[in-house]
Amino acid sequence: MIADNLRSIEARIREAALRVGREAEEIKVAAAAKGQGRAKIVEAINAGIKIIGHNYVQEALSEKPDPMGGGVSYHMIGHLQKNKAVKAVELFDVIETVDNRDLAAVLNRRVGEMHRTMGVMIQVNVGEEPQKSGTSPPEAEGLAAAIRELPNLRLMGLMTMPPFFDQPERARPFFAALRELRDAMMKSGLLTSEMGELSMGMTGDFEVAIEEGATLVRIGTALFGPR
């Protein structure tokens, strides 16, 4: 079932990319594994998924499969508290949800102690919703500059979770806003061409996100089915 779902998702990605003159190969799929369990995660990897996204450190700890090879990367896609940072560094290859300098500093220190580097993205609260994590768009530039000073972190780009809408088109302005912020930061030199990732879009709106420049979409229900 998951393999069939992935083929359907890939076809939708190709169609969305074609509509705006992009190459489908530019877009990666992260399997949003919240609540799915280890067996489904392994099935997704066997179907060809290369990125597994987890919302919670504890869930990743209990569900992460034994090393399977094949270049699978594990991303933290949920809010990360500083007191969970030490364990997160052991579990994940990329933290997509860095939203403040203190968290970045803790990650940098712990990663350094492990003699490695770690990819990170800046989570931007484009809707400026008080109940959601993420730095505000005006503060993202300063956070990017701070992260670039940390030797053990590799800034990869920006991530967002826009307000929820039943109609995907209503999310479009928020995806466009993240792309415009990324582009402005690249123009000013705050981001290099290697730091241009845009992680945005989920099951309900990923095609719109792709049309607005997403390079990484986080897909749960469309891949795994309902929890």
Task: Tell me the major beta sheet.
Answer: 8 strands, parallel
Rg from Cα: 17 Å
Helix content estimate: 40-55%
CATH topology: TIM Barrel
Portion of residues in beta strands equals: 15-25%
CATH homologous superfamily, by name? Answer: Alanine racemase
Query: Quick one: how many beta strands?
Result: 8
Order of helices and strands: HEHEHEHEHEHEHEHEH
Structural class, from secondary structure content? alpha/beta
Count of alpha and pi helical runs: 9
Strand order of the largest sheet: 7-6-5-4-3-2-1-8
**Sequence stretches where pLDDT stays below 50 over 5 or more residues:** none
Commentary on this structure:
With 227 residues, this protein is of the alpha/beta class. It has one domain (2-224): Alpha-Beta Barrel (TIM Barrel). The protein is built from nine helices and eight strands. It has helices at residues 2-19, 38-47, 57-63, 85-91, 101-113, 137-148, 172-187, 206-211, 221-224, and strands spanning 28-32, 51-54, 73-76, 94-98, 118-123, 153-159, 197-199, 216-219. It has an eight-stranded parallel β-sheet with strand order 7-6-5-4-3-2-1-8. The longest helix has 18 residues, at 2-19. The relative contact order is 0.16.
